[in-house]
Amino acid sequence: MSLEKNNQYLLEKKRKEMDFLHHFHLLGYDLLDLSLLEEFEWDRLSEDDLKMMKSRHTWQTGHSLLSLRSDWTDAIVRYRKKYKLKTDKIAYSGPVFPMDKEKMQFGMEIFTEDIGKQIDTMKELIQYIKENMALSLNVAVISHYSLLKKLLSENERQEPEIMRYLDERNLDGLTERLGDSHPVVRLMSQPVPEQLDYAKAHYPDLRKPVEEIKRWQDQLQKNSIPVVYCDLFSIPPQSYYKGIFLQFYTDHAVEPVVTGGQYSSPTRAFGMAINLSSLSLMKNIERGKFL
């Protein structure tokens, strides 16, 4: 890349970041900027912390463990707990460094139990993407993280082999371990388009999360997402994810462009993030597009 192209890329990148923050500030979001470095204390590492260290860039200094920020939601959860942050809505932008990758994330969080307000937040982000990024979200995948707690016992959820089979959607392996009468096996045996109705009809304990999925699914369809399908067997990456989880894809995309869902922080919350790789951002800015 020539120096002039590099200059234009950097200026456009910063402008897009400012556009995003300004847009959501005008919608009533408070803006938050956090340090790229996160500090952990060895004797206070939670089970979630230990699990996530495998995907973080970490090093030790003195008695502390330092890490590059790998996820904004996780950083905001920590910040809110530590400083008892009082705000209803937050917008942010900045890089994250999951292992072997660098991404720019633009996102927002809303701290409320009101699902209607959470859905409004999702709509605001979808509208921004369509109008300001010239980006078509063609596929949405919707999950509900409370389902596994109702489908699997605590002991079953502690079995690495069962969880690996579940992550792989390995029906044969799950049948061998759990038996063909197990709810997970029976549900996974159904055609994907029929699994949601099957769950509601055969398992009363699943009725509430299924109805929540249908509510969000309806809103996604009303917002002109062409393909919306459900994944009833998603495993939450951290324990604070409690409910609906969403992933949005463009045509031919392997990784989701937008992700988000319901979590606790320490109260109920909902957040979504636009994930931009530096390489894709550079190529598409050169073509006159944001993404």
From TrEMBL:
Protein's UniProt keywords contain rRNA-binding: no
InterPro entries listed in its UniProt record: aa-tRNA-synth_II/BPL/LPL, HisRS-like_core
KW Transferase (keyword) present: yes
Start and end residues of each Class II Histidinyl-tRNA synthetase (HisRS)-like catalytic core domain: 18-273
Transmembrane segments: none
Source organism of this protein record: Alkalibacterium subtropicum
Domain of life: Bacteria
Record keywords, A-Z: Glycosyltransferase, Transferase
One MF term in the entry's GO annotations: catalytic activity, acting on a protein
Protein name: ATP phosphoribosyltransferase regulatory subunit HisZ
Gene3D superfamilies per record: Bira Bifunctional Protein, Domain 2
